[in-house]
Structure formats: C-alpha cells, structure tokens
Amino acid sequence: MDQKIEYLLRQGDNALILSQQLSKLCGKGPALEEDMALTNVALDLLGQTRMWLTYAGELEGRGRTEDQLAFLRDAHEMRCCLMVEQPNGNYADTMVRQFFFDTWHYFLMQGLAKSVDARIAEIAEKSIKEITYHLRRSGDLIVRLGDGTPESHAKTQAAVNELWMYSGEMFLYDAIDIAMVEQGVAPAAEGLRAAFIEHVSEIFAEATLTMPDPAAWMQRGGKTGRHSEHLGYILAEMQFLQRSYPGAEW
C-alpha cells in the first residue's frame, strides 16, 4: 500500500508543481491567446492534482487532505520529477518543458487508463481529454517556434539541449515503479519511452530541430525527494499563506 501511495504522490506532485510554474505566467504570455491557454493548462493540471492527492490521502489513512499534502510537505517530501521544477525561462524554455512533459503524460495516462486499480483508471480517463489538448497545443507551438524565425529556432534548440537531460527521469523506473507494473497498476517503461521518442522525433523533424541522443546521460532524483534548488523557491511562494496562517480557508 505504501508503494501505491508514493506512486500517487508522484503523479499529483508532477501536476501540482507544473501547474504552479504555469500560473506564474498569468498576465505575462506573449499574446492574449497564449496567456489564456497557459492559465487553462495550469487549471487542468491543478484539477488532476486534486484527484491524485485526494486518493493518496485516503489510502494513507492519516486524515491528510489534498490541501495538507500540497501545502504542508517540505521539498524532500515532494515526489515530482526534476523536469517540472525547471525555471520558466523564456517562452521557448516554457514550451519545450511543457512539450516533453505533455508527451510523457499523454502516453502514461493511456496506460493508466487500463490500470487494475479502478480509481487510478478513472482519474486517467478523466484526465486524458485535457492532456490530449495539452499535447496537441505544445507540439504545434514547438513546430511554430522551431520552424519560425532564426531567433525563435535558436532559442528553441537551446531549450531542447538544456532540458533534454531531465526527460529521462520519467522513464527511469525504481522499485516503486516496478512494483506498480508488476501489480498491473502502471504501464512498463519500455513502451512509454519508445512512444515518447517516436512522437518527439516526428515533431522535431517538422520543427527543423535537432533531437539530442536518446541514450545520453539523464538527471534523476526528484521522484525520491532529491530536488534542484528551484523547488525550494517554488514551494516558498506556493505554501506561504498556509504556512503563515495554518488552517486558513476562503
């Protein structure tokens, strides 16, 4: 049971931290349409966070709510991948990070929709429609940025080169991931990785971007609580109100 709780926290924390990152861009998008789109994606991810963390709290049996799991855990207790805590940077950085995450997220949810755990399958089914839109949108923007002006191409390629090292952690399975696969809860890493590489390759070819070596060394640690320095700043902002005024409600 503890392994399943950890797995649920990973899903919830990935969506939570990326939602927080995107919410910082509200009012700062390069165009009104993009500003609204980024905010809507953040809201979608926050809704998914609530489902994952609520289920984790129920299985844990310690009475912790989704809010308590989101706002009262320290950085070393968070289980998000390193990818989602990387800075927003310029718009190319934001969208490359989003595209890598969306691609993995889409294929993972397809697998989780077939989970033997009915609650997990239900959450995945509810999320997949939103994630399909996220992936279509981020892929389209990668093409537009990569195959756009010389400046947009250069910035997008730089973002790809910088963020690629974080893309592998999502497929580096540890004992918890493996246990979920063996129990029929989650899909195997090999199929997800193959689908990820295939889709990214197709989009990059259309975007005239050079794809880094899929076998390159990858960063890892976020899923087990070893994070970059960025997460502490994200949590300080996100958790300030609840930490300062415990139990505060609207």
TrEMBL record:
InterPro entries per UniProt: Aromatic_CoA_ox/epox (IPR052703), Ferritin-like (IPR012347), Ferritin-like_SF (IPR009078), PaaA_PaaC (IPR007814), PaaC (IPR011882)
Pfam families linked: PaaA_PaaC
Superkingdom to which the source organism belongs: Bacteria
PANTHER family the UniProt entry points to: 1,2-PHENYLACETYL-COA EPOXIDASE, SUBUNIT C, PHENYLACETIC ACID DEGRADATION PROTEIN PAA
Protein's name according to its UniProt entry: Phenylacetate-CoA oxygenase subunit PaaC
Native source species: Massilia frigida
Phylogenetic lineage: Bacteria, Pseudomonadati, Pseudomonadota, Betaproteobacteria, Burkholderiales
Gene of this entry: paaC
